[in-house]
C-alpha cells in the first residue's frame, strides 16, 4: 500500500496569512497532485507534478503556488490566504506504470482561513 | 467548464438492490476512467478503473460500463449493502498527461 503523509492535519490562519501544506510519499511514484475538496464540487485539481522541479497547472490554480523539491516531497503554498481557500486539501501520488493510474491519497489537511 | 459531471448529488437504494451511478465527460482525449469511494473524514480510495479499449469491466459486485460515443460511464453495484453507503467520485484522465479530473460526487445511501 502506498504511503502518502500530509502535514499539518489541521491549520487555522488569518486572511492575508502565509501557509505551507506539506506532502511526502515514500513509494517512488512519479506523479503527485494537490486537490481541494468542497461541498458540491468534489475534488478539484490545483497543481500536479511528474517529478522533482516540475510543476503542471491544474484546474483551480489561482492563489496557489506549488513546488516539488524531491521525488518524495510536494508543497502547496498560499502566500496571501483568503477565506475562499478554506477547504479540505488532499495530496495524492500515482504510479503510471502499465495500464493503471491509481491515485493514493493522504489523509487530508483541513485549512480554515478566518 | 466542468469536464467530468455527476448529475445526481444523491441516490438511495434498498439493501440488496442494484446501485447505478452515472458520470458524463466532455474531453474526447480522456482514455482512463475510474470510480473512487470516500467515507466521511477519510480519503478517497480506488474502487475500479478501465481504459478506453474496453467497454465493460467486472470486479466482484462492481461493474463499470463505458460508452465512449456517448461520453458516459457508469458504476453498477449489485447486492448493495449498508457498508456501500459512501460518496462515490468518478474520475477521468488522459494517459498522455496524467491529469486526473474528478466529478462532484454522488452520495449513495443503502437503506436496510
What is the topological layout?
The complex is a heterodimer of chains A (114) and B (112).
Chain A: E1 4-7, E2 10-13, E3 19-25, E4 31-38, E5 42-49, E6 56-57, E7 65-68, E8 73-78, E9 87-94, E10 103-105, E11 109-113
Parallel strand pairs in A: 2-11
Antiparallel strand pairs in A: 1-3, 3-8, 4-5, 4-9, 5-6, 7-8, 9-10, 9-11
Chain B: E1 4-5, E2 10-14, E3 19-25, E4 32-38, E5 45-51, E6 56-59, E7 62-67, E8 72-77, E9 86-93, E10 100-102, E11 106-111
Parallel strand pairs in B: 2-11
Antiparallel strand pairs in B: 1-3, 3-8, 4-5, 4-9, 6-7, 7-8, 9-10, 9-11
Brief overview:
Chain A has 114 residues and is mostly beta strands.
Structural write-up:
- The complex is a heterodimer of chains A (114) and B (112).
- Chain A has 114 residues and is mostly beta strands.
- In chain A, 0% of the residues lie in helices and 52% in strands.
- Chain A has a single domain, classed as Immunoglobulin-like, CATH 2.60.40.10.
- In chain A, strands 2, 4, 5, 6, 9, 10 and 11 form a seven-stranded mixed beta sheet that branches. In chain A, strands 1-3-8-7 form a four-stranded antiparallel beta sheet, with no helix packed on it.
- Chain A is globular.
- Chain B has 112 residues and is an all-beta fold.
- Chain B has one domain: Immunoglobulin-like (Sandwich).
- Chain B is built from no helices and eleven strands.
- Chain B has strands at 4-5, 10-14, 19-25, 32-38, 45-51, 56-59, 62-67, 72-77, 86-93, 100-102, 106-111.
- In chain B, strands 2, 4, 5, 9, 10 and 11 form a six-stranded mixed beta sheet that branches. In chain B, strands 1-3-8-7-6 form a five-stranded antiparallel beta sheet, with no helix packed on it.
- The N and C termini of chain B lie far apart (38 Å).
Please tell me the CATH architecture of chain A by its name: Sandwich
The CATH superfamily of chain B appears as Immunoglobulins
Based on secondary structure, the structural category of chain A is mainly beta
Q: State the separation between the terminal residues of chain A, measured CA to CA.
A: 36 Å
Rg of chain B over CA atoms, rounded to whole Å, is 13 Å
How many H/I helical runs of chain B?
0
CATH class wording of chain B: Mainly Beta
Our estimate of the beta-strand percent of chain A is over 45%
Provide the domain count of chain A: 1
Class based on secondary structure composition and strand pairing of chain B: mainly beta
Mean of residue pLDDT values of chain A: 92
Give the tally of structural domains of chain B.
1
Amino acid at each position: 500500500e502506498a504511503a502518502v503523509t500530509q502535514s499539518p492535519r489541521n491549520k487555522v490562519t488569518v486572511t492575508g496569512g502565509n501557509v505551507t501544506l506539506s506532502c511526502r510519499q515514500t513509494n517512488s511514484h512519479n506523479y503527485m497532485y494537490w486537490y481541494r475538496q468542497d461541498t458540491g464540487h468534489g475534488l478539484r485539481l490545483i497543481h500536479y507534478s511528474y517529478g522533482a522541479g516540475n510543476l503542471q497547472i491544474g484546474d483551480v490554480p489561482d492563489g496557489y503556488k506549488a513546488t516539488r523539491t524531491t521525488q518524495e516531497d510536494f508543497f502547496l503554498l498560499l502566500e496571501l490566504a483568503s477565506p475562499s481557500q478554506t477547504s479540505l486539501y488532499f495530496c495524492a501520488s500515482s504510479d503510471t506504470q502499465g495500464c493503471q493510474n491509481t491515485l493514493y491519497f493522504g489523509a487530508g489537511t483541513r485549512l480554515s482561513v478566518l | 467548464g466542468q469536464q467530468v459531471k455527476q448529475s445526481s448529488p444523491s441516490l438511495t437504494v434498498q439493501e440488496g438492490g442494484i446501485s447505478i451511478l452515472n458520470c458524463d465527460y466532455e474531453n474526447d482525449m480522456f482514455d482512463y476512467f475510474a470510480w473512487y469511494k470516500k467515507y466521511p473524514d477519510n480519503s478517497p480510495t480506488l474502487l475500479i478503473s478501465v481504459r478506453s479499449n474496453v467497454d465493460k469491466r467486472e470486479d466482484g459486485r462492481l461493474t463499470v460500463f463505458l460508452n465512449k460515443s456517448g461520453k458516459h460511464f457508469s458504476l453498477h453495484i449489485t447486492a448493495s449493502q449498508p457498508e456501500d453507503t459512501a460518496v462515490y467520485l468518478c474520475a477521468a484522465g488522459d494517459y498522455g498527461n496524467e491529469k486526473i479530473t474528478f466529478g462532484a460526487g454522488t452520495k449513495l445511501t443503502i437503506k436496510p
